[in-house]
Structure formats: C-alpha cells, structure tokens
Amino acid sequence: VRAYEADQPEASREFCKQAMEFFAQSKSVSESSVGAASVIGGSLGLFADRLPPEIREEAWQMCYDSYQKLYAMQADSVDRLPTHMRGELLAGLAQSAHRTGRTEAYDEYLNQIIEKLPDTGYSRVAKRWKTDPAAAKTGNISCKSCHAPGRLAVRLGKLP
After folding, report:
1. Distance CA 1, CA 47 (A)
2. Dist CA 160 CA 144 (whole Å)
3. Contact 40/70 with Cβ under 8 angstroms?
4. What average pLDDT does range 131-148 have in this prediction?
5. What's the CA gap between 50 and 47, in Å, rounded?
C-alpha cells in the first residue's frame, strides 16, 4: 500500500504479490484456522481499497471468503462474542459483500449490525450507509470499537 501510494509501481506489484502469496499459503496451512481467516479478512478489509486497481477485485474476494469462513466457524456464538469481535466480524461481512457486489448479503449484514450492535460506531456507520449508499463506496465500517484516534501514531511514525 505504501509503495503504491508513493507511486512506486514495481515495488507495489512485488509487495502485493508477496502478500497475496503469504495469505494463500496461510490458508492452505491452516484451512480451519480462525486466526488465519481473521488476519486475512481484517488486513484486506482495511487495505484492499488502497491496493493497485488490478488486484482490488481479487483482494476483496479473498476478504469476503475469509469472513465467510469466520462466520461459518463462529455462527453459533456470534451473539455472545464481545462487541469488538462481533463488530469486526459483521463489519467485515458487510463491507466485503458490498465491495464484491453481493447486494442482498450486504443489506442483511447491515441490518444485523444495527440490530446486534446498537449504540456503537458500527451501527452508526451501518445506518449512514443505508441512508446514503454513496458513503459505502469509499467508507470503512470496521475498527469502530477499540482503536482510538491517534492510538497508533507513534508506532506508525517509526515505520520506514
């Protein structure tokens, strides 16, 4: 992402290729891993819109697949998960469904967010996306429960 945004197309393509290979490798090593699906889905959900256009579709599809896997593994306990875990799961499902053109699933996940996470940042964004569909095209619904603004500024400032 940083190479792409710094207009370094060759480096960007190489880093993206490596990342996608690492994600594919982690899926094959631990097909039933909640951890692998969480990292893949969460990472791509956060960064896919900022990747080079030629791999965004693949990235969003991998993100959607990861969140579907997570949901299948956690469906029986979604209502008992802590707010952060429930919010990130439903947010990832909603956003990746939207970005992959799954309109009915997207709408259903927004409804679940509004119902299961009232009075949270997740439900505020879900309601806004329902009333203003254009906001969902470039917006993000994840990371609305434990990441205070500026919390990572020091760490990010130390990155090359």
Report:
1. 7
2. 27
3. no
4. 81
5. 5
Least confident piece of the model among 25-29, 56-60, 80-84, 124-128:
25-29
Three-state DSSP state, 71: helix
Total residues belonging to the chain: 160
Q: Three-state DSSP class for 144? A: coil
Q: How far is CA 74 from CA 37, 69, 125, in A?
A: 12, 9, 23
Amino acid letter, residue 156: L
Q: How distant is the alpha carbon of residue 48 from its chain centre? A: 8
Mean pLDDT score of the chain: 88
With beta carbons less than 8 A apart as the criterion, state whether 122 and 141 touch.
Answer: yes
pLDDT digits (tens, 9 = 90+) for 7-66: 998 888 899 889 888 888 887 776 677 888 888 899 999 999 999 998 999 999 999 999
C-alpha–C-alpha distance, residues 50 and 44, integer Å = 10
Q: What whole-number distance in Å separates Cα of residue 105 and Cα of residue 95?
A: 10
**In this structure, are residues 63 and 42 in contact, taking their beta carbons and an 8 Å threshold?**
no
Residue 160 has pLDDT above 80, yes or no: no
pLDDT at 98 over 90: yes
